[in-house]
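Let us work through a complete example step by step.
Step 1: write down the sequence.
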Amino acid sequence: MARYLAGRAAGVVVILFLVCLFTFVIFFTLSPDPAVMICGKTCTPERIDQIRSVLGLDEPFITQFGSFLAGLFAGRDYGEGANLVHCAAPCLGYSFQTNQSVWDMVVERLPVSATVAIGAAVLWLLVGIVAGLVSAVREGTWWDRAAMGLALGGSSIPNYVLALALQYVLVVQLQVLPFPQAVAFGDDPVVWFQSYLMPWVVLATGYACLYARLTRANVIDTLAENFMRTARAKGLNPALTLRRHALRPALTPIATIFGMDFAALLGGALITETVFGLNGVGKMAADSIAKNDQPVIMAVTLLAAFFVVVGNVVVDLLYTALDPRVRIAAR
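Step 2: predict the structure and record it as tokens.
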């Protein structure tokens, strides 16, 4: 098991290094000159050369990439003498638009994205798994047909359409909810819940519909297995049989996609945060793309990749706990 964990940890390091390299190559070769973007269209060539020198943009690619990697672990310095600016580790550079530390921008907005992702994940797991389980047990009934019909329809609605519709009905017409805003839980728990309720519902709807259909299909397949027929033939309690012998193998594939979906959301729910005006990582990414703010775009890309890779590892570890065959193979 220790060898398995060490192998997975080494794989994470290699993948994150490749993501850093790939992302850096894209911004190094395809993006406009950062010095021109910082200085503006009316800037003099001398000033542009000075900015290139301060940022190290006149250095070879290998040197720039090495400085970027070193900045993640040890920080880095910009400029010289009286103009020296130290960027503490983990240094992701400074925004071209606001001149603010990119790491500080991420830390400031990450709690909002985490709140949206965690709340939505709890909602879609509860609704999706329960609806799928009941549909599987009552296969062919009106409940099954109605639930799967709603799941099909719900997964077809784009997030931005559902978000605008909910805002119009619940905020503008009925006025039962405030317009979403990034309120801290400690400031006012009631307003906090009301503010995040619509983003949670919007983000969870598509996933809940997908998970309901997957859970239904997995449980139906498991119920048809020989060990389930044997359990029923022995007269075991149906609810106990379903909970102990059918639900666990049926949820193993769900755990796989949940880890990946949740990890991806931690990198920012771009559409949902943008539509509701929540100042999370997703909205920061959208604003940075519109303004071509390269350091921020690169930081969000690396952050999303980090969560996806780590989420993948967590899923693998969870697999070893859920499935004894994986645990034995990992020894």
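Step 3: interpret the result. Residues 23 and 83 are 29 Å apart (CA to CA).
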